[in-house]
Structure formats: structure tokens, C-alpha cells
Design goal:
Elements (H helix, E strand, L loop, with lengths): L15 H4 L31 E2 L2 E4 L8 E6 L7 E6 L5 E17 L4 E17 L6 E7 L5 E11 L19 E5 L4 E4 L8 E6 L2 E6 L3 E4 L7 E10 L2 E2 L6 E4 L12 E7 L20 E9 L7 E2 L14 H13 L3 E8 L9 H18 L3 E6 L19 H17 L4 E4 L27 H6 L6 E5 L6 E2 L5 E2 L4 H13 E3 L6 E3 L6 E6 L11 H13 L18 E5 L1 H6 L3 H12 L2
Parallel strand pairs: 17-18, 17-29, 18-20, 20-21, 21-22, 22-23, 23-28, 28-29
Antiparallel strand pairs: 1-4, 2-3, 3-8, 4-7, 5-6, 5-7, 5-8, 9-10, 10-13, 11-12, 11-14, 14-15, 14-16, 18-19, 24-25, 26-27
Helix pairs in contact: 3-4, 6-7
EC number: 3.2.1.14
Protein name: chitinase
InterPro entries: CenC_carb-bd (IPR003305), Chitinase_II/V-like_cat (IPR011583), FN3_dom (IPR003961), FN3_sf (IPR036116), Galactose-bd-like_sf (IPR008979), GH (IPR017853), Glyco_hydro18_cat (IPR001223), Glyco_hydro_18_chit_AS (IPR001579)
């Protein structure tokens, strides 16, 4: 990490080693157990049935003649996987005998465990499928640059997906199709299910309609509100599992005045950070949102946020408060938005009490009012957010630091109204890593995925989510492959996760994707600004893929193209100025040319 960053921007919360350090104890196998894997002991003398990278079979076996040998290189963790058919709401027992340092065993989107051993050692865990889950993927892998690991006698025990369910109950319907959408209603339809006498439509966990036909219009919804619909079929024998989810957002969203594609940047207003101080009046008009970095608390748990301009001793060219405020007004007169950003590396904020929550609201409001700001950016890093053990439903969080932050943001939104701009800048560790590991579920770092309940609770008030696609370790995408920062592929895969949504680890819950106009991605303005700087041509490749579904490099967009993708965020405007405005000059015209 460049030394000038240490003060304000957290380094990678990278090592996934830390995420999986707490293994999950084995449980007894379910009734009617059977090993569902093909070639579980590699006794075919090949990798038949498995999908692997940097792997082969070897004679270094625990039993029989062969075992898996994965060669983990500096750029490949030698992942091997196999997908099996499973039943919904069913517990499976998973195990493997492994040797190497380290070796991981897990289920994609579910639990995992690991060990480091010189002799064959048994890894085991249990896994319960979700309400609509019909397949599961077991995986094994080593770690980057650690050499060869071995695995043998792998087992995925439980009833296969072809086993009969409840006799007489209908099958789950297919995913409902979204039809006409208005400010207050969403039309849905789905194919008929054999043996069904009726259907129930759910909005999240709430029953929204019961019908005998294969379509309905759910009404009475709020304008610009997000919904996740599922359908079940029923008859006298019972109700089916739920269909796959269909996401929809009602119309009537308030225009905050942002351009369709925006350039978003952080301004070091309270410190210099080696790149030099930039006066507000000198920020070019190319920047549509300027985030003032940073508002910080008087102590970690006080909730009392303070903001002041950079001291003159550190920033000799700092302007007066009057000039700073006048420059903000001038930006706003041109349609630009200026926000207070809270957090950064040093600004740890833990709202552990309702008193801290209330102080957060009053102190943040005082700063917004003092400068006449347009809204708030949440840039909580480090240990600001975490999940207590057992807090596994991101839709209904129970951890105080999460619950109190959500309450504070809702209060601020209600106070300032529909034009209030709310943005968030989490690291991948707190969002996309939630696909594999969720802090409240145990078995690893309790911070993984901890932004998800905040994003979900505020999704109807959220203007832009711009995840930091930098200072990150490898992250698994929806293609179940690890992606590395610094190229188009990382931005494509990480942004697609936010658009498409994803199953949250082993919790059985699915995080619904955001509207495309709520999504941007963040990257360093220059090589000194953070790890993961991406050349402009690669950024443009990512945007072309995400907006136009072109030049995706072999990646398939699970969330489809997003022609209304909001744009790009960077750390920072100061670093961009220091490097001759490469970020601004390369990307602002490109954004303007997008559809």
C-alpha cells in the first residue's frame, strides 16, 4: 500500500484464508443418504465428473489407486468442483480426505472449511439447501502459490434431486414473468402447474395474492419500491416449494437531478494525503458528485460526527469556510451534487447504542445544514460493520451496529426528503464476498457481507451504490470462478453480482439485485491511489459489457445489460489532479457516449 494511503483508505481485507478459518463441525448424515458424486475417489484414473483447473490424478492416494492432485500456482488456486441434484430444504453431509497446506472444502454459496495437514485429514461439514434449491456445487481448492494439495474419498451424502417429494403436492412453478409495472402495481404471470388447483403469490415473505389462474396484478405498492415475488402451487395434498424469484421495482422514482451516467469522486477536503489539496472551486465541472472526505467520529462508538477543512499547516492553500461554502453553491447551481462522506480507513463508526444513533443523526444533520449539502455517502470500512452470531437473515438484521445505522439513515432520508442523495462505497469484502461467506452464519470473519442488510433496507432510498473494486483479494463471481482486480473482468463480474443479485452464503436467503440506475463501480484514479488501478481501455471494455453486453471477454451477464448504469466512482479527485486528470479526461467523454 502506498504510504500516503495508510491514513485514509483501508488496505485489502483480502485473505479469504481468514474467512474460512472456523470450520463447521460434521453432523450425522440424513436418512436415505447416498453419495451423490460421480468418481468420488478418482478411481477412474481421471477427473471424470469433475471440473478442474491446474489439476490431475496422482497415485498418492488414501485408499485405492488414485487421488486428486491440485497444483496451486500464483494465479490459480487449483479449484475442482462437481454439481449434483439435490432436494429443497434438505440437509446433506459433505466430507473429503485431504493433505496439503491449505486445502479447502465447501459448497458454492454455502459453508466451507479448511485445514493444513501433512498427512491425510478428514474435512467435513453439513449443508442445508434453500427452499427452491435443486442443485448444489461442491468444491475443493488450495491457495495461491502454495503448491500441490491432494484429496481423496470425497462424499456428498443425502437424497438425490430425483427422489420423490410430498406425494400428491404439485411441483414448484417456474419463475414468474413481470408484465406491466406502474407506480403502485406489478403484473405477474407464470406457466400452469400440473395438478394445481390454485396459486399463492408472495412479496418477500408476505402473502400478496391467492388466485386460481396463472396471472395476477399485485397492487397497493409504494412508488419507486423494490419487490421480490415468488409463486407456489397448491392442491388438497399441500403447497409446492416456491418458484425462483422475480424482482421488480415500481415506477415513480424521484429525479435527483443526476445525469444518466455520472462521474463520482472523493475530494480530500479535510486532509492532504500526499496528493495535495484541491479547493472546491478548482474541482472541474466534469465531476457530477463530489464526496467530501471525511466526516469522522469523536470516538468509535460516540456517533458524534465531525467535519472540518484541512488545517492550514497541512494544506497551505486551503480556502476559507466562506469560500468553501460559496464554491459548493456554485457547483450546485450547475447541477452538481456535493455530499458528506463518513468513514474511510480511520473513521470507524460503530453505532452500538440508540444514543449513538441519535447523536449520529443530529451531528450529521448539523454538518449537512452548515454547508447546504445534497446528501450523504456511507464509506464505512474496517470494523464499523459486523454481524453477531446467529444474525443470518439480511432482510431482518438484529446486530445493533447494523440496526442503528439503518434507523439513522431512514431518519435522515425522512428529514431531507426525496431529493436527498444517498450513496455507499463498501469494499467487495462487505458485499460480494457475502455470496460465499456471511458473517452472522459463523465459520469465518463476522464482517463478511455485513453491508448487505444496510443496502437492502435502504434500497428504495439509495441513489448510487459504488462498490470499491480495489484493495481487494480474489472474489468469487456468479460464474463460481475467482476474479482478480485490475482488469475489465473484475469490474464486470463484481458489478453483475450487484445487478443480478445472489444467494447469501449458506443462509437460504437471496439478495435481490439493484436497479441499474443505482449501480456504479469504483476504482483508483491512478497507481498511487490504491491497489487495483485499471487502465482506461479496460474500464471502457467493462462499461461496454455492462451497458451494451459487448466485449465481455467470455463472461455471461447473469443480470443482463444495464444501459442505464449510473457510472464510475474514483478515489480520488485529488489523485486524478496529481496525475494530470487521466481518469476524468478518459472516462467522462466515454460515459457521455453511452446509450
Amino acid at each position: 500500500m502506498n504510504h500516503v494511503l495508510v491514513r485514509r483508505r483501508s488496505a485489502a481485507v483480502a485473505a479469504v484464508l481468514a474467512l474460512t478459518a472456523g470450520g463447521i463441525a460434521a453432523t450425522a448424515g440424513p436418512a436415505n443418504a447416498a453419495n451423490l458424486l460421480t468418481n468420488p475417489g478418482f478411481e477412474s484414473g481421471s477427473l471424470a465428473g469433475w471440473t478442474c483447473s491446474s489439476a490431475t490424478v496422482a497415485t498418492t492416494a488414501r485408499t485405492g489407486g488414485y487421488a486428486l492432485a491440485g497444483n496451486a500456482t500464483a494465479s490459480d488456486n487449483a479449484r475442482c468442483s462437481q454439481t449434483v441434484s439435490v432436494l429443497p430444504n434438505t440437509t446433506y453431509a459433505i466430507s473429503a480426505w485431504v493433505r496439503g497446506n491449505p486445502v479447502y472444502l465447501g459448497v458454492t454459496g454455502g459453508p466451507s472449511t479448511w485445514t493444513g495437514a501433512t498427512a491425510y485429514t478428514r474435512l467435513s461439514l453439513s449443508f442445508t439447501t434453500g427452499a427452491n434449491q435443486t442443485t448444489a456445487q461442491l468444491y475443493l481448492h488450495g491457495w495461491y502459490g502454495t503448491g500441490t494439495y491432494y484429496a481423496d474419498d470425497v462424499s456428498f451424502d443425502g437424497p438425490g434431486g430425483g427422489d420423490p417429494g410430498e406425494p400428491g403436492a404439485p411441483a414448484a412453478p417456474a419463475r414468474p414473468a413481470v408484465g406491466a409495472v406502474t407506480n403502485t402495481s406489478v403484473a405477474l404471470s407464470w406457466p400452469a402447474v400440473t395438478g394445481a388447483t390454485g396459486y399463492r403469490v408472495y412479496d418477500g415473505s408476505a402473502l400478496a395474492a391467492t388466485v386460481t389462474g396463472t396471472s395476477t396484478t399485485v397492487s397497493g405498492l409504494a412508488a419507486c419500491s423494490s419487490h421480490t415475488f415468488t409463486v407456489t402451487a397448491y392442491n388438497t395434498a399441500g403447497e409446492s416449494p416456491r418458484s425462483p424469484e422475480a424482482a421488480a421495482t415500481t415506477t415513480g422514482c424521484v429525479d435527483t437531478g443526476l445525469p444518466k451516467h455520472a462521474l463520482i469522486g472523493y475530494l480530500h477536503a479535510s486532509f492532504a494525503n500526499g496528493s495535495g489539496y484541491v479547493r472546491m472551486a478548482d474541482v472541474p465541472d466534469a465531476w457530477d458528485i463530489v464526496n467530501l472526505a471525511f466526516g469522522e467520529p469523536t470516538s468509535v462508538t460516540s456517533g458524534d460526527i465531525r467535519f472540518s477543512l484541512c488545517p492550514q499547516a497541512e494544506c497551505p492553500n486551503v480556502e476559507s469556510e466562506a469560500d468553501f461554502t460559496a464554491a459548493i453553491r456554485a457547483k450546485q447551481a450547475k447541477g452538481k451534487k456535493v455530499l458528506l462522506s463518513i468513514g474511510g480507513q480511520n473513521g470507524q463508526v460503530q453505532l452500538t447504542t440508540t444514543a449513538a444513533r441519535d447523536k449520529f443523526v443530529s451531528s450529521v444533520s448539523a454538518i449537512i445544514d452548515r454547508y447546504g449539502l445534497d446528501g450523504l455517502d456511507i464509506d464505512f470500512e474496517g470494523h464499523s460493520l459486523y454481524l453477531n452470531p446467529g444474525d443470518t437473515d439480511f432482510r431482518n438484521p438484529t446486530t445493533p451496529v447494523i440496526v442503528n445505522l439503518i434507523s439513522a439513515l431512514k431518519t435522515l432520508k425522512a428529514r431531507y426528503g426525496s431529493k436527498f442523495v444517498l450513496t455507499m462505497a463498501p469494499e467487495t469484502f462487505f458485499v460480494q464476498v457475502g455470496y460465499q461467506f456471511y458473517g452472522g452464519a459463523g465459520g469465518g470473519d463476522n464482517r463478511t457481507g455485513s453491508y448487505l442488510p444496510v443496502i437492502h433496507a435502504m434500497r428504495d432510498a439509495l441513489t448510487v451504490l459504488h462498490v470499491q473494486d480495489y484493495n481487494s483479494g480474489p472474489v468469487m463471481g456468479l460464474d463460481n470462478q475467482y476474479h482478480n482486480m485490475g482488469g475489465a473482468d473484475f469490474h464486470i463480474a463484481m458489478t453483475d453480482m450487484v445487478k443480478a443479485g445472489f444467494t447469501v452464503a449458506n443462509t437460504g436467503h437471496r439478495f435481490p439485485g439493484l436497479r441499474e440506475d443505482q449501480i456504479a463501480f469504483g476504482l483508483p484514479a491512478a497507481v498511487s491511489a490504491g491497489n487495483g488501478h485499471t487502465p482506461p481501455a479496460a474500464v471502457h471494455q467493462a462499461l461496454n459489457c455492462l451497458a451494451r453486453n459487448q466485449n465481455c471477454g467470455g463472461y455471461t451477464l447473469r443480470g443482463g445489460p444495464s444501459p442505464a448504469i449510473r457510472g464510475l466512482m474514483t478515489w480520488s479527485i485529488n489523485w486524478d489532479r496529481y496525475y494530470g486528470w487521466e481518469f476524468q479526461n478518459s472516462h467522462e467523454p466515454f460515459l457521455n457516449a453511452l446509450p
